[in-house]
DNA sequence: CCTTGCCAATGACATAGGTCAATCCGGATG
DNA sequence: CATCCGGATTGACCTATGTCATTGGCAAGG
């Protein structure tokens, strides 16, 4: 428990709430450390999402496959982000998302049961998850507005501003999917931007 | 404090957490009751959103006006829903949304300061807001996926399923804006559906 | 070092949905 | 009542983005 493997997560927590060392170790004790290889699928459509994952290194995408078989990326989570099929996680029902590592990835998993335990024993963490979710919600709402009011090219501009480091780590297909266009159109769009 | 004006809100709270009568009254005491007439604008772009509003009766919309002057509805909040410019509320910065009553509306306002007070004195409410936000977040994510993977007509089908009562209360323009199409296209779409 | 396979680019063509203007209508207001 | 105004509909036309198929490149694995 004294190693620094969870450095990134500790930082993340302390940025949001103040906790005692005991509370912190209790949290860390509830986690399960996992490794995924590139292209490993962590969760499939129709499965119940049992864990929230904090990414320590690497990158995970969450996506939907529509009835035409097309993939639509909902979330891209590099190190320092939490990711899950949130709807499934909170409702305890089967979800419709896939989770997949797009790089070799290390993560810390917090199971639904352990989260419940954590929140019961250490209600201070309620605030951590509330604030986290509020931020995620605000960003999600902004994305809805962007989808309705901006062109694909403008959405790409915002993407690059918001996630400059991701722009190089992801393939064009992935960025295209995230901003909501096809790879062919994305490619044409890039050319047109000179 | 003993009147039943906040019946709907009390119910809403008790559906999510268990609170003592004292905690409940403390919450209710922090609220400010307001009335809005139809078309009244509660918040404009560029303003700091100081309150969360719980709708007791009537209906509020939140929307963005894009650079072409077009309105895009983000949220429709009838009685029983909380509404705010969440990003502005949580960051304490100027927002980009408008809030406007689309019916004569009664609401209970919880200011940022009072929410902070509430959460400090009665941490039990952290859970209430966490759960609320989680649900809202999950719905918001679903809407992003719908925008990416469904046609306008399919989005309308989902809208009617999800909000059957709203379908009649709103104008076609409003529904069109919410599902992300223009009024003319919405009208044509309806005709085509036979 | 040669497959194999996915990604990127691109041409030809298709379409969902947007734009703009005209008309009609019903409810609100003086 | 008469007026006014915004919503709904619709026609003609437009465009952003999708579809599909082809080609070339580059990276991983046997």
UniProtKB/TrEMBL annotation, chains A, B:
Cyclic nucleotide-binding domain sequence ranges: 34-114
Domain of life: Bacteria
Pfam families: cNMP_binding (PF00027)
Annotated Gene3D superfamilies: Jelly Rolls
Record-given protein name: Crp/Fnr family transcriptional regulator
């Amino acid at each position: 428990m004294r190693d620094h493997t969870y450095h990134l997560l500790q930082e993340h927590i302390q940025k949001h709430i103040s906790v005692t060392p005991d509370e912190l170790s209790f949290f860390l004790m509830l986690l399960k450390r996992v490794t995924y290889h590139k292209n490993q699928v962590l969760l499939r459509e129709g499965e119940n999402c049992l864990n929230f994952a904090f990414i320590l290194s690497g990158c995970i995408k969450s996506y939907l496959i529509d009835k035409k078989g097309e993939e639509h990326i909902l979330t891209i989570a590099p190190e320092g982000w939490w990711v899950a099929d949130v709807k499934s996680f909170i409702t305890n029902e089967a979800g419709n998302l896939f989770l997949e590592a797009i790089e070799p990835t290390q993560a810390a998993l917090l199971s639904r049961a352990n989260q419940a335990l954590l929140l019961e024993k250490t209600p201070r963490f309620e605030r951590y998850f509330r604030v986290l979710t509020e931020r995620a919600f605000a960003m999600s709402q902004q994305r809805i507005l962007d989808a309705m009011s901006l062109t694909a090219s403008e959405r790409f501009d915002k993407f690059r501003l918001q996630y400059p480091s991701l722009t190089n780590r992801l393939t064009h297909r992935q960025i295209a999917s995230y901003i909501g266009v096809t790879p062919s159109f994305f490619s044409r769009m890039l050319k047109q931007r000179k």
